[in-house]
Every structure is written in structure tokens, then in C-alpha cells.
Design a protein that fits this description.
The chain is built from 12 helices and 13 strands. It starts with a helix and ends with a strand. It is α+β, with helices and mostly antiparallel strands. A hairpin with a 2-residue loop joins strand 12 and strand 13.
Length: 504
């Protein structure tokens, strides 16, 4: 369910920074091209017409100057006139008072002559006057015979000759339309190519930012293993290095906080438990030591009185009993001292982050000889590394006690199974480690008492393998010192002991 929510959030999340940057650049570029196309579509024709008007005026001034002061028959003037007319697509006609043609840029002189007369004598129609000088007029006109619109200029030169200069506007419109289409095609292709380049560039630019986002997500889950890999020395790389330092500092701080929190919780309960624990401890120790002390005393008195003095085998047996009971007492006292330190809060629980699977695998490897000697089959779940927060040394003590308990009580198929189960809850992330052994289940009436000091379900069997009844009490004390859960489950074919540790 949690992964489904994350997938849903990723599908419907707002654009990533890479998409936003790319879209902004593409939108700006496309908007600029559209604006350019709109401006040219609206104003380019007027710009061309204005440019044409200036060219016609320039031709007028040049012809007027040559006709007044120059030689119109010169090759230089003829070449310049043809060049100007071809460049601006201009038709030119100049006649004298006798209607003789002085200058003409086209063979269709009669058509220009009729048009000149129409303009002078007011027979032209559909005129739109654009400009007027002392000796000339400029206007847009429609040639009905060809249904073509022209830009025309007519009037008198300084020497008294009549002139007509005209240029078709349709060619201007064709040029404008062609320019706009070309700009649209170029803009579309440029937008597509630029979009691909922008996407590639933004991917490279935002890759470290995406990496930082992933690191920050892992840090919110209290996973500090992911680190930023610096590739340069820009501001993003410096930020990544600071994130790495922040991650290390947070991990260290959380470790210290967890350790301090455990100490605080233990201190709160410490004062209430000390008196009761002292009384209970003295009572149980007195009870447990009574039997081995009596045995040691009895067998020692027997040796002193010379019982079976001539029987070497009996004397060795007496000595072995004394040594065995002394060893059991020594082992029990050592465990009691460890338990006493835990219960009285004299032992600091150092919260660390370590791989629980590696710890258990190493322990099983060290116990291989004991497993082989007892003919036990140990099965351990194969698992990826599972990192937990706990006291590593004390966690190994828990595993050792559970495993030793399983080895001492395994029966039937003689199988011991160690399993992991990750528990993901809304406010907690934990892993449950369980140790199961085949054999007889624990009697139901004994289940509430197995965690008590010196409690033994089967006293005869416990004494047979040298148990003191303190191992599970030590497990209880360790788990409570770390404020974690533990327990036991009965099955028809065996018993499972389990404990939980935090993964985050």
C-alpha cells in the first residue's frame, strides 16, 4: 500500500525541475519565434512599401538631377537606371512637352503613357494618395485591366518633362507571404531541434539536483548510507558535499540521541526497581547457591573423613563433583553479575547501526563445531543486509542465549531455524528475528515465568546441561534496556523465541 501511494504521487506530482526548465526555455523560444512571425506578418508589408516609396523617390531625384544637369544618353546613367529599375521592380517613363519619350525602362511605353495621362487629367480611379510634393504625387492605384495594384509616382521634372514611376504591390505581398512562410517553417524546425538540445542540456544540469533529491528522500527515512558523488566544483557540488556532511552529522547525532534516550528511560525506572531487585536478587541467589554449596560441602567432608580412601575411582568422582559444582557456581555468579549490571543500570547501552544478518551469520560460523557435535541442522534465512539500531555486543548476547537455549532443548528432527521478518508500520520500522527449534513445546503454565531469574521448566534437564535459569532473564534485561519487544511462541513441533530491533 505504501509503495502504491508513492507510485501514485510520482505519476501526479508537479513537473520536475528538469521539465520546468526545459518547458520554460522551449516556451520562451517558441514565444519569441511566434512574436517575430506576428510582427513580420503585420508590419513587414508596410515596411516593404515604405522601402519601395523611398526607392521610387530616390529614382525620381536621380532622374530629375540627370535630366537637369547631366547627360541621359551616357552609358553610365543607362546602366544605373536599369540596375535601379531591376532591383526595385520599377517601371519608368519620362516624356517631353511634345509627348516624345525621353526615358523608358520598359517596352510597353503606350501603357505607361496612357497611365500618365490618366493620372494628370484625373481619369485614374481607385486612387489612395500617400504623399504629395511641389511637383509630384504618390498613390496606390488599381489597374483594372490586370487587376493589379501599383504604387505610382507622377509629376513634372524641373526641366518641364512629365514622368511616371510605378511598381506592382503584389510582388511585395508575395515576398511578405513567402518570408512569413519561410520564417514559420524555420521556426518550427528550430523549435524542435532546440527542444531536443534543451532537454539534453537540462538533463545534464539537473542530474545532480535529482541526485540530491534522492539523498534527501533517503535522509527523511533516516537512511544515511546514500552519499552524493561530487563531479565538479560548482555550487551544486558544494551543496552535495554539505549534504554528505549533514548526513554524517545527523547519523552521529541520532546515534547519540538514541543512546541518551535509552539512558533517560532507564533512569526513570531505575529508582523504583532498585530496592525490589536487591531483595529478589538476594533471595534467588541464596536459593540457587544452597544446593551446589551443600553438595560441595558433603563431598568435601567425605574426602576429609577418608571415605573410600583406597578407592581412587570414588575419590576422583568426589573431586569431579566438587569441581563441576564449583564451575556451575562460577558460571552462575558471572551471569548474575552481568544481569545485576543490566538491571541496576550500571551498563551503558550504546546504540549503533549495524547489519544484523552479518552478526548472526558470523555467530553461526563460530558455533559450527558445537552444531556438528550435536548433530543439529541449522537453517538460516538468506537475506539482504538489514541494518538495525541497537547495542551490537548485547544483541550478540541475545542471539547466543536464544541459540544455546535452542541447542539444549532441540529434539525430534533436530532442526534450528533462524528467520527475519521486516515489519513496516506507520510510525515504526522494525525487523523481527526468530530462533525456532524442534522438540517439546513449553508447558502453558510455564510460559509467563520463563523470563524470571532462576526459573526452570525442567529442573532435572536444566541441571543436566549445567543451566542456571538466568539466560532468558539476561535477554529480558537487555531488551528492556533497549526498549524493544521480545517473546516466545509455542508450536506443536517446537518452540520459537523472537526479538525485535528498530531499522530506522
Amino acid at each position: 500500500m505504501k509503495r502504491l501511494k508513492e507510485l501514485f504521487a510520482r505519476l501526479f506530482i508537479r513537473h520536475s525541475i528538469k521539465q520546468e526548465i526545459a518547458l520554460i526555455f522551449i516556451a520562451v523560444m517558441a514565444g519569441t519565434l511566434i512574436l517575430c512571425w506576428t510582427i513580420t506578418n503585420i508590419f513587414l508589408e508596410n515596411y516593404y512599401i515604405q522601402n519601395k516609396k523611398d526607392a521610387i523617390k530616390d529614382a525620381y531625384y536621380r532622374i530629375n538631377d540627370v535630366m537637369t544637369n547631366g547627360d541621359i544618353s551616357s552609358d553610365e546613367f543607362g546602366l544605373e537606371l536599369r540596375k535601379t529599375c531591376d532591383m526595385y521592380n520599377i517601371g519608368l517613363l519620362v516624356i517631353d512637352a511634345a509627348s516624345n519619350t525621353q526615358i523608358s525602362s520598359t517596352r510597353d511605353v503606350d501603357k505607361l503613357l496612357r497611365r500618365l495621362y490618366d493620372n494628370f487629367f484625373g481619369q485614374g480611379s481607385d486612387m489612395e494618395y500617400l504623399d504629395e510634393g511641389s511637383n509630384y504625387y504618390m498613390a496606390k492605384s488599381m489597374d483594372k485591366s490586370t487587376n493589379t495594384e501599383y504604387l505610382e509616382m507622377w509629376g513634372l521634372l524641373d526641366n518641364g518633362n512629365l514622368f511616371l514611376i510605378r511598381s506592382p504591390i503584389e510582388s511585395i505581398r508575395d515576398s511578405v507571404n513567402l518570408s512569413n512562410r519561410f520564417l514559420a517553417y524555420v521556426g518550427l524546425v528550430t523549435t524542435l531541434i532546440s527542444a531536443a538540445l534543451i532537454w539534453f542540456v537540462t538533463t545534464r544540469i539537473t542530474r545532480p539536483i535529482t541526485e540530491l533529491k534522492t539523498i534527501s528522500e533517503e535522509m527523511t527515512k533516516l537512511n544515511f548510507e546514500t552519499k552524493y558523488k561530487s563531479q565538479g566544483r560548482n555550487e551544486i557540488d558544494v551543496l552535495g558535499e554539505h549534504m554528505n556532511e549533514l548526513s554524517s552529522t545527523l547519523e552521529k547525532t541520532i546515534s547519540e540521541l538514541k543512546t541518551a534516550n535509552n539512558e533517560l528511560m532507564r533512569d526513570i525506572e531505575k529508582k523504583e526497581q532498585i530496592d525490589e531487585m536487591r531483595k529478589e536478587f538476594l533471595s534467588n541467589v541464596s536459593h540457587e547457591l544452597k544446593t551446589p554449596i551443600a553438595l560441595i560441602q558433603g563431598y568435601a567432608e567425605g574426602l576429609k573423613e577418608g571415605i573410600n580412601d583406597d578407592d581412587t575411582e570414588s575419590r576422583d568422582f568426589y573431586c569431579n563433583v566438587i569441581m563441576d559444582e564449583a564451575g556451575k557456581m562460577n558460571n552462575m555468579v558471572r551471569k548474575l553479575l552481568d544481569l545485576n549490571q543490566l538491571e541496576f543500570g550500571n551498563d551503558v547501552v550504546a546504540m549503533e547501526r549495524f547489519d544484523i544478518t552479518a552478526l548472526i551469520n558470523n555467530f553461526i560460523a563460530s558455533a559450527e563445531i558445537l552444531i556438528h557435535q550435536n548433530g543439529v541442522k541449522v537453517q538460516v534465512d538468506e537475506s539482504e543486509p538489514i541494518y538495525v539500531w541497537a547495542d551490537e555486543f548485547k544483541t550478540e548476547e541475545i542471539v547466543r542465549n536464544f541459540f544455546s537455549n535452542a541447542m539444549n532443548h532441540v529434539d525430534g528432527d533436530k532442526i534450528i531455524e533462524i528467520k527475519y521478518r521486516v515489519i513496516e508500520e506507520e510510525h515504526a520500522n522494525k525487523v523481527r528475528i526468530s530462533v525456532f527449534n524442534t522438540g517439546e513445546p513449553i508447558p502453558e503454565e510455564s510460559l509467563p515465568h520463563i523470563w524470571e531469574k532462576f526459573y526452570k521448566v525442567d529442573k532435572a534437564r536444566t541441571r543436566e546441561y549445567g543451566g542456571s535459569g538466568v539466560g532468558l532473564s539476561i535477554v529480558k534485561a537487555i531488551m528492556e534496556s533497549m526498549n524493544q519487544h521480545y517473546g516466545v511462541i509455542n508450536y506443536t513441533n517446537g518452540v520459537e523465541f523472537w526479538f525485535e530491533l528498530e531499522t530506522k
